[in-house]
Design brief:
The protein is an alpha/beta fold. The chain has helices spanning 2-7, 11-24, 29-39, 43-49, 51-68, 89-104, 134-148, 205-218, 231-242, 276-280, 376-388, 394-405, and strands at residues 114-117, 120-123, 184-190, 221-227, 252-258, 261-262, 265-267, 273-275, 297-302, 310-311, 355-359, 369-370, 374-375, 414-415, 419-422.
Length: 444
C-alpha cells in the first residue's frame, strides 16, 4: 500500500489512494487509522474523516491521559494500536506522516482537504458565515470530504433514512405519493462514449449512473438505465416512456440525461444535438403523456450548457438569488387550460405545470466532472438526497445541493453553480421507507 501511495505524483492523489485502500479493507483498517490520528493529536483530521469514531477515540484518549496524569503526547501509535494486517507500525507512522503532508500541501491558509479532478483539485472551502456553529462546520466539512471521495469509495456508501414527516401525507399542499407499487419510474440516459472525435469520453460518468441507481432504488423508484444513446435512440426512448403503462399507477416521473451539452441542448452518442425543450420535455406534456398529467415530472440535466468556466471571486456573501426561483413564483407557469365541453371549464392541467428543471450548471457555463468519482453535481445531489429526503421537500434539497456545490473549486479557482426552475403546484416529498401502495405508513 505504501508503494502505491508513493507512486502518486500529486499530493491530493496520495490522500485519495490511501483512504481508498483503507476503506476497501475488511479488517477495520480505516477505524484504526482514525485511532492512530487521534493518538498522534491530529484530532481535526480524524473528525473530518469519521466524526463518530474520532469522538469516541478522543474521549477514550483524554480519559486515559487524565487517569495517568500526563499531558497530551505525540506518542507513536505503535504504543497503543493493534497492528493492521500487512502493515507494520513503522509503516503506519509513515502513512500518517504522508497523509498529513499531502492533506495540507497547497493549502496553507485553511483546513480544507482536496481531491484531484479532471481539471485539478476540488477543494472544500471554509464557510464565511459567522452564524455557523462548530457542529455545522464539521458537518459541511465531512460532506465535502465525502463528495470528493476522501471518505467514500467510488460507489457512495449511504442508507436513506425512513421518513419522519408522514404527518404530511394527504395534505392538500403536498403531492400524492401513494399510487402504486413504486413511487414511479426513473429513466437514466448515460452517454459515456461518443463517435465524434471532438467529444471526449466522459470518464467517471459510470459512477454517476451507479450512485443514482442506488439512491432512487432506496427511495422506492423503478430505475431503468440506457447507455450511449444516439439522438434517434433517445427520441425512441422518450416516445416509449411517455406512454409507459406503469405511469398509470406512478406518483411521479424522473429523467436524468448524463451527457455532453451546449446551451439548451444535449448530445447524442453520435455527436448530434437534441433540444432540451423541443425534443425532451415537450414529450411529457399532459397531451402527450396523459398518464402523467397532474403528477410531478422532474428533469435533471448533467451536461455543460456552454464553454465558460465559472470563475470564483472574493465576496462577503455567496448568495445568488437570481439563480433560483422563489416558491411563490411557481404560479407564473404558462399554458392553456383544457376545456371539456362548451358548458364551461373543468379542473384541468396547465401545459407546463408540475415540472422541475434541474441543470448541473447555469446557461453558458461548463459543468465539472471528477474522473475518479463522477460529476460534482450528481455527487452533491446523491449526498443531499440520501441525507435529507426523510424530512425535506425536493426544492429545498436542490437548494442545499447548490449550496454544497458552490463550496467546490478547481485548482485555478473555477467553480460551478446549478440552476433550477419549476412549475410545481404543491410540495414534493419522497417519504422514503414508507409503503408506496397505501397511505405511506411505514411497512412492518
Amino acid at each position: 500500500m505504501k508503494e502505491e501511495i508513493e507512486a502518486e505524483k500529486i499530493s491530493s492523489n496520495k490522500v485519495g489512494t490511501l483512504l481508498d485502500n483503507l476503506m476497501r479493507r475488511e479488517d477495520k483498517a480505516f477505524d484504526r487509522f482514525v485511532f492512530a490520528l487521534v493518538e498522534t493529536n491530529q484530532d481535526g483530521i480524524a473528525l473530518l474523516l469519521d466524526e463518530k469514531s474520532a469522538e469516541a477515540h478522543i474521549a477514550t484518549r483524554n480519559t486515559s491521559r487524565r487517569t495517568n496524569n500526563h499531558p497530551s503526547s505525540t506518542a507513536s501509535p505503535a504504543q497503543t494500536l493493534a497492528p493492521m494486517p500487512g502493515v507494520s507500525n513503522l509503516e503506519l507512522q509513515q502513512l500518517i506522516s504522508m497523509f498529513m503532508s499531502a492533506a495540507t500541501a497547497g493549502n496553507q491558509t485553511g483546513n480544507a482537504v482536496s481531491a484531484s479532478s479532471a481539471s485539478g483539485s476540488v477543494v472544500a472551502q471554509p464557510r464565511d458565515d459567522n452564524e455557523d456553529t462548530v457542529d455545522s462546520k464539521h458537518e459541511e466539512e465531512r460532506a465535502l470530504a465525502f463528495i470528493n471521495g476522501h471518505s467514500a469509495t467510488k460507489e457512495m456508501k449511504f442508507t436513506v433514512r425512513p421518513a419522519t414527516n408522514l404527518h404530511l401525507v394527504g395534505h392538500h399542499q403536498v403531492y400524492r405519493m401513494n399510487r402504486g407499487l413504486t413511487r414511479g419510474r426513473v429513466l437514466i440516459i448515460n452517454n459515456h462514449y461518443f463517435l465524434d472525435s471532438q467529444l471526449a469520453a466522459r470518464v467517471g460518468a459510470n459512477y454517476d449512473r451507479m450512485n443514482l441507481k442506488k439512491l432512487f432504488e432506496q427511495l422506492s423508484f423503478t430505475v431503468e438505465i440506457h447507455d450511449n444513446q444516439c439522438t434517434k435512440g433517445m427520441r425512441e426512448l422518450f416516445e416509449k416512456e411517455r406512454t409507459h403503462a406503469d405511469h398509470e399507477k406512478a406518483s411521479m416521473f424522473i429523467l436524468f440525461i448524463l451527457s455532453h451539452g451546449s446551451q439548451g441542448n444535449v448530445y447524442g452518442s453520435e455527436g448530434e444535438k437534441l433540444s432540451i425543450e423541443d425534443d425532451i420535455t415537450s414529450c411529457f406534456t399532459p397531451e402527450k403523456a396523459p398518464l402523467l398529467a397532474g403528477k410531478p415530472k422532474v428533469f435533471f440535466i448533467q451536461a455543460c450548457q456552454g464553454e465558460i468556466k465559472g470563475k470564483l471571486y472574493a465576496s462577503d456573501s455567496h448568495e445568488n438569488e437570481a439563480m433560483s426561483e422563489k416558491d411563490e413564483e411557481v404560479s407564473k407557469q404558462m399554458g392553456d387550460l383544457k376545456i371539456e365541453d362548451k358548458k364551461g371549464f373543468v379542473p384541468g392541467y396547465f401545459k407546463k405545470a408540475d415540472v422541475v428543471m434541474s441543470y448541473a450548471t447555469v446557461k453558458g457555463y461548463l459543468a465539472w466532472r471528477h474522473t475518479d468519482f463522477g460529476s460534482w453535481f450528481v455527487r452533491c445531489l446523491v449526498h443531499v438526497f440520501s441525507q435529507r429526503a426523510h424530512s425535506e421537500h425536493l426544492l429545498d434539497m436542490l437548494t442545499e445541493v447548490n449550496s454544497l456545490l458552490t463550496k467546490l473549486k478547481t485548482e485555478d479557482s473555477c467553480g460551478q453553480l446549478a440552476e433550477k426552475s419549476d412549475t410545481l403546484t404543491k410540495k414534493l416529498y419522497f417519504f422514503p421507507g414508507a409503503d408506496p401502495r397505501t397511505d405511506c405508513s411505514v411497512p412492518k
